[in-house]
């Protein structure tokens, strides 16, 4: 018998054996029902952090549990391997190539993952930086291009001066680069975009289908898509053959327009001011504002500034002349770059009008009130009755919106319109370490897509890494200079690479066909495995990755490449790992490294702690005592099982006949634990309460072990010990496998079927009730579960200890509370 729990030896032994026997290999198809369990793949930074350990431990319990339940489980792992850190390391250290840096990191992290004992099918490993993968990323780009969903345009884009690249809107958080926190600037650049806006309505509507997603994630996507209904109205410019188009959600307030504002970037500005006396001042203002970040311009406390252009437009509903201004708070990227000023009914317009003494006209009167423009201290944006609005007077807000839109459409002055906050997805990056965009520019033919048979467009290895703000590929003539696939003449390759979110938008399809070099995936395999049944990852991907993946899936569906419209049926967003109340980070110095914990306590303890310390969606507070506690628990399991291992399998696998007393209780607890763990893991992912139940089972087994052998049923013991190990196996795969072997089993515990509980076994046939005398607890009595209140009284009063306590006193009342207690009142 092994005395000591030697986790180092045990974990190394089983990791080696599982790999040799390839027990986590998944066949492409099976008659069994499928289950695709997926954790978001990591960026290969070089080291796992606790957030990773949490993410993958959760996924591993789900995958092992479903496997034991009889599902054919796909549980793969790979690497989101393109991206800036590799290139920045090359710039900083000079002698490290991003490819080598990335592959070294992948090796290190793969080793760490294997040390955690996660049940991945490593034969399906993918890395997005591998030409065999990015060939298909480029192929997918071409499919979008041919469908008219990839296009190039000049646009004012978000530029991170520190990362020296453009960023998608989704990568800008509060005006700063999401990655490095540097304030983002605007630059005019020719860039490639994906037309995600063409899918805005479907992306919004299909959120309803995602019943297995957290509500908060759906709300974040809904807000990001930002659908609003309203009207597009055209205001002709007075004395010019031009018009200003605005979008408003409140066409019912159009009679209240007292001025018009254009974004400084609006293309009409220069035409309006040309030749006017104030033109120079407006130009200076425009130049100054354009250099400010979006956040500086639109923050609610930012000073609103504007300047009159000298020009007027005509309100198409009442024919009034309206002054045109330029102002800092209007952005060209949102809506049309023009806003009609209705100060009485819009707070931002109100503040602006007060500052510049622009007229305020009330056109909505709230019920039971009379708004006076002079006395108003803030805008009134609520419901009411239309006034000062010609033929529309007397209508309510909603009636007014409908009536004004109908009128605009009838007169050809505008139309009802739905607007989205969502912008097209900017995918060009001026960096080396990404998938090259498969496009060439020919002097004669213009933009020419690279033919599919010429893919992949390989990244050249020898380039110079400089933080120039231009892709290093642009300085690599062997890469840039090529011939046109169409006419054979001289051509230049596109030197930008693709946003890495493009690589991660489709990787979950590739796991089904990781080595296919003829196609991105085999259709039959994708039809069998997809959608992902359970996706697990951080909530920080609520918009970017999850929205892009949904968009991609819808495009693939429309292209006839997949049969599903949503990629992820169920989503679990795990909470953060905190220490001392804050997220673990190098700068705070509160990082606990997984390596250290695994070296000191073993992978099973690390996994168990992280699963036991909090429910998966909640934040988890790191606790050294908590880790110690889990380690002690596993030692307890070790001692318990090794002490009864000998001859355990000589007993029948389950007890026969009617059990009584301690045997009945032990048998009952075993089945109650099966029930609890199955429900907690299967229905709710409440791993913490599942582990608690297993801990209680261990405590009970220790007591049961002390019962004299003659009173103990060896079948009850065997059943309890075997089930303890099976229930614990998804959480702590190594120690349970070792103990399973020690107790004499020859087949892996991870190939055992998940047990079901026996409803007969858990029926409660005896309960403990409390005896109170004058409200104080004096005794506990075991009674049959189906006892009547009258019988309860009799049983309690017959207890020797109770008789002694009431001796010589007068019993005033005996009150039975069924199932709980009997209170005796004496005086
Ligand atoms: Zn940055
Ligand atoms: Zn050509």
TrEMBL record:
Which chain regions cross the lipid bilayer? none
Query: Where does the record place the Aminoacyl-tRNA synthetase class Ia domain?
Result: 422-623
'KMSKS' region (motif): residue ranges: 583-587
Identify the residues that bind ATP: 586
SUPFAM superfamilies, per the entry = Anticodon-binding domain of a subclass of class I aminoacyl-tRNA synthetases, Nucleotidylyl transferase, ValRS/IleRS/LeuRS editing domain
Query: What is this protein identified as?
Result: Leucine--tRNA ligase
- Subcellular location field: Cytoplasm
Report the principal subcellular site.
Answer: cytoplasm
Species for this entry:
Desulfofundulus australicus DSM 11792
A GO cellular-component term linked to this record: cytosol
E.C. numbers: 6.1.1.4
Catalysis performed (reactions) = tRNA(Leu) + L-leucine + ATP = L-leucyl-tRNA(Leu) + AMP + diphosphate
Domain Leucyl-tRNA synthetase editing: start-end pairs: 222-409
Query: Can the keyword Protein biosynthesis be found in this entry's annotation?
Result: yes
| Methionyl/Leucyl tRNA synthetase domain segment(s) | 41-183
A Pfam family per the record: tRNA-synt_1g
Source domain of life: Bacteria
One MF term in the entry's GO annotations: ATP binding
| UniProt KW keywords | Aminoacyl-tRNA synthetase, ATP-binding, Cytoplasm, Ligase, Nucleotide-binding, Protein biosynthesis
Q: Could you give a single Gene Ontology term from the biological process aspect?
A: leucyl-tRNA aminoacylation
The listed location of motif 'HIGH' region is 42-52
EC class name = ligase
Report the sequence similarity comment from the record.
Belongs to the class-I aminoacyl-tRNA synthetase family.
**Occurrences of domain Methionyl/Valyl/Leucyl/Isoleucyl-tRNA synthetase anticodon-binding (ranges):** 664-787
